[in-house]
């Protein structure tokens, strides 16, 4: 499978497993799982064909491990805008986590902190490099440090997704460290 095809299949999966399953007639269970055969049939019926082998390739080689297969089912690891319960237990975060963004969002973040926006949780990275890549998708990246140790001590709950993304409901401004002049 060439890289362009893999990206196309991955984007299709993200759209329909994370955001718009109803668009192709899918009904994920409460944890976000759908039967693989049902997914492939629904995609085919809506004009996008892919094989089980292509699906397995995308899941196995996706650099962000966006999808999980369990038996004959698949779901997105995180990032849903639809209601799902990923069943992730609370986890103790490292002292600092990181969030990649772009400069135009900084004034709102300084005032309101990090909010999930259209997602169910704020996504945080365990390292600056990953946060930099995330921020770079929207322009010149700015990486914020999150005092996760203090948040956890103060009662905020964190979860760790299957692909290593840290999730929390929100990050108030007092726990953020901004680069450069304030």
From TrEMBL:
SUPFAM superfamilies: ADP-ribosylation. It comes from the Bacteria. InterPro entries: Ptrans_KptA/Tpt1, RNA_2'-PTrans_C, RNA_2'-PTrans_KptA, RNA_2'-PTrans_N. The keyword Protein biosynthesis does not apply. Its EC number is 2.7.1.-. Keywords: NAD, Transferase. HAMAP family: KptA. Removes the 2'-phosphate from RNA via an intermediate in which the phosphate is ADP-ribosylated by NAD followed by a presumed transesterification to release the RNA and generate ADP-ribose 1''-2''-cyclic phosphate (APPR>P). May function as an ADP-ribosylase. NCBIfam families: PRK00819.1-4. Belongs to the KptA/TPT1 family. This is Probable RNA 2'-phosphotransferase. The gene is kptA.
